[in-house]
């Protein structure tokens, strides 16, 4: 409870139980029951169906060693806000003119943020060695199943779509000419019905191949930089109403994981808040990047801009 009378509702959940979409539907149902005073049994359409273990029998975790999942000290989490005009300008910049394909907001911002990170950290000369980026995007399988999962399906139906590309193809302008956006899109497209069938059968997935390639690069003395990107855009957090009105602001807490990018809608639904996690040294270089600063909206949330700078 705040001095003004406002209320904050905080929720902590484990992805071992369900993905963000499943939890979002749980929260919406909870809010509906609180708002409408529902005390009777929910209609069948709103009752959760726990089908994940049936569709995807438990098996050993993927071979890929997702280093971004390692908690680290000294990681800073900051919000960089891109308004609608900035996003459209960036989408135009990454437009695939050859195939006349306009990139999605997620493809655009993940490419831009990672390219500006590489531009910022590579300004200081480093020993010459092979440097490769592994970019992992979370992909929602709900609509990709055959048939698509029912809205009340509850569980974790997320997979990672992986893209590997040399650092030289990411730095600044190179991210445009190298077709990084296209490579990211192609990686996500591989998460199709055939991929899901193989996943259900327990066959080796694409991430295993990426992991093997990463190990080979590191054995040769190279460096693999891993980024994980997740998007909660279009999840309609601002439509949730427990009976006190819709929220003024919806966000995530700070994470102590390095090199994670999480995308959320702004309260007006037009822009995107990019939560970027980096170590202190890299964050200082990244947020000082002139090209980045041209596209972000400074002081959008004033005191909310730095949600935790001393994890």
UniProtKB/TrEMBL annotation:
UniProt-listed InterPro entries: CAT-like_dom_sf
Pfam family, one: Transferase
Keyword Acyltransferase attached: yes
Domain of life: Eukaryota
Record's keyword terms, sorted: Acyltransferase, Transferase
GO MF term set: acyltransferase activity
Family: Belongs to the plant acyltransferase family.
Protein name, entry field: Transferase
